[in-house]
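Quick one: structure tokens for this chain, please?
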Amino acid sequence: MDPRSRKKVRRYSLGMRQRLAIAQAFMEHPQIVLLDEPTNGIDPDYLPQFLSRVRDYADQGRAVVITTHELAHFAPISDQILTLRQGRLESRQEERS
């Protein structure tokens, strides 16, 4: 994302709009960030940087709650994984120490 660009957001690709939404979510350093399917449309080359950012944020004592169908991306950086099925808690796992 180039801050000098005059390109309208509606003309961004899905991945660029997703990156913008992620940046907005973290921008004011809230104590809790909620992300719904944040990897949807994300360029695979950006994924490691994004995962690192999420983990760094959590390591600062903040909470990052992510809903996703792509557990493989997030399990290595997660403290807890909650699995829901039909709106009910099915399982809870402690992951990262």
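Residues 14-27 form the longest helix (14 residues).
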